[in-house]
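Handout, section B. The chain below has 344 residues.
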Amino acid sequence: MFEAFAPTNWEKWPTHQFTETIGPKAWKSIYLTPVAEGPFLWEESDMADAGGLLEARDLKEMPVQGKGIKKKWIKGSDNMGWGMRNRLSRLIGKDGHCQFLPIDHGYFQGPTRCLERPEDTVRDLLPYADGLFVTRGVLRASMDPDMRTPVILRVSGATSVVGKDLANEVITTSIQDMLRLNVAAVGISVFVGSEYEKETLQNLALLVDQCEEYGIPVMAVTAVGKELEKRTSRYLALSCRIAAELGAKIVKTYYCAEGFEKVTVGCPVPVVIAGGPRCETELEVFQFVYDGMKKGAIGVNLGRNVWQNPHPVATMRALNAVVHDGASPEQAMELFRSLKSDQD
């Protein structure tokens, strides 16, 4: 017992801490708990985890703040909240580049060739993907919840290749479901210049409003439907800039051979390259990815040119070399041939 005064309502009082100096920069902590009203009725309590606490260091004892720390640069992220930046950073490598793997094609194409069983398609590819672009249905039905690859959730749709107009999309997923699925980002298509331009841009704006509240980045997909001739730098630059102006944190768009740097320079957020129809040769894929990266894209979002290739893993790894290691198309082709021969 310790000589002290225990107040009325003593049973509601918490344990009190007293300290005894045991060294120049250390104390012994004594914890007293009142046991009854009146004097001499406090007893010492044992709290071993708080004993012998060391005093905080002086400034001169500490290393220079931030020394050796190099923050990853992500275009347009300087004023992001912590959660938004953290989610986006999960999708983008330490080098500021990314390779996304899209398997969302079934939302308007149905059972796409080589994507009939999505779990089989991605099994050997996920280790090389920085993000998986997928619908909630396939995510729940086919993807292992223990996978480490961050998810970009496709949240627009409700049209098909046999319908009147692919552009007439709506938002298909609630913000609650996005949170339940622990996604790193969400993706939505916009169709600039189409009959449904206003509706799809409004979808994007509404989605950004919902996602900003919870720190979820929105990836805008500048879709062109069946009108592939629209893929000019002027059109793509227009679409990307509008998407960014409405709040998209990253934009997926098509590559164009002429003027692609105008697309990336004119967009205040990161641009990733979409694959589009399958190319005739692997070298053609490596060439447009290499050129697009040199002209300002931070990465790629290639599906059919990867998993419809007879050697998808070799293709994925060769693309990784271009995206993350700066390999030339010729070096990527050499790596592809080497990996392909190992698999044969």
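Note. The longest helix spans residues 197-212. Compare this with the example in section A.
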